[in-house]
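note to self: dont lose this again. the chain is below, predicted strucutre after it. 360 aa total, dont forget to put it in the shared folder this time
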Amino acid sequence: MRSRALCGIAAAAALLAATACGSSQGGGSGSEAAPGANGAATLTAPAEIADCTGHRTVFPTPARRIVTSNGSALELLLQLGAGDRVIGTGFPPGKGTLPAAVAEQGAKVPVLGETGIAKEKLLGSGADTYVDTFGPMAAMGDTGAAPTEAELAAAGIRHVYLLSTACAADATGPATDLAAVEQDIQRLGAITGTTPKAGELVAAMQSRTGAVTAALKDLPAGQRPGYFFFDFDAGTKQPVALCGRQVGNAVITLAGARNVFADCDSDFRPVSWEDVVARNPDWIQLAVRDRGSAAATTAAYDEAEKFLRDFPATKGLAAVQQGHFLRIGSEATTIAGTRNADTVQQIAATVHPDLVKAGH
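---
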């Protein structure tokens, strides 16, 4: 996967000034929405979105026919109340993986690709907007090469990235807060005319993370336990480290833990098991991707734990011997979304149970 530099925010051109790239503050928002004649949201000013390279795209009216690259972008649009405008998705969410409030509507969205969306299918989808979680990617299976920006433009499709994930690898410095995720929500609110709802979602996230931050405000740096994100689905022959630029690093940091690979200057990077052992994490997240059912996902967690308990290089780690495992899905940790805030609380309640209570 190639990524672009995190450099640009959502803005309503007539209302907001640009925010500096790499700011630690919450990102800009889009233009205000007002009800149209048919009750649908409209824009009171054009929404102007800057992508990772600084290229700007103007939405004079809200996006009406949206294709999403995967279930995470779809989930955000559903939560914003724009799900009825999503005409297709790639990497569809597995059964039971969407929040209950939006699951029924999400299940009705046509699947344009079980993994990536084939170029011809995307270009011929009739979409006016493509929301891309991962950014430019190499061919995946039989989907072929991704369409170029020129081809998307020729098809009348505006290309919008989730900056927090698509642009993470080239960001400046480690991710230590969820500002980029909040920007993504506000950007999608701007282009769909759902800015007030975007504000509600961001406020709810900030409430969750703020409560954790307040509870941990007196925690000395030396009491932040080492934390290893074990990406089980990336393979066990050579582990893949979650690095400092990835949004998951922000999740771990906000939760009062210390990502043992935070110094890795990328989003993800292959490492060795010797590296993992040398960093001797206090806690290990068994990060598996949702398998589509609770039983299958639980089995994947069991398999990941068994591997660490049996593998010669890891079975002697104190975290393994003490059973310091967290069963938290990859998606809720590494993909931009409102559930990142829930993961912050879940990790904090596990590694600091005396300071943070589960569910609060």
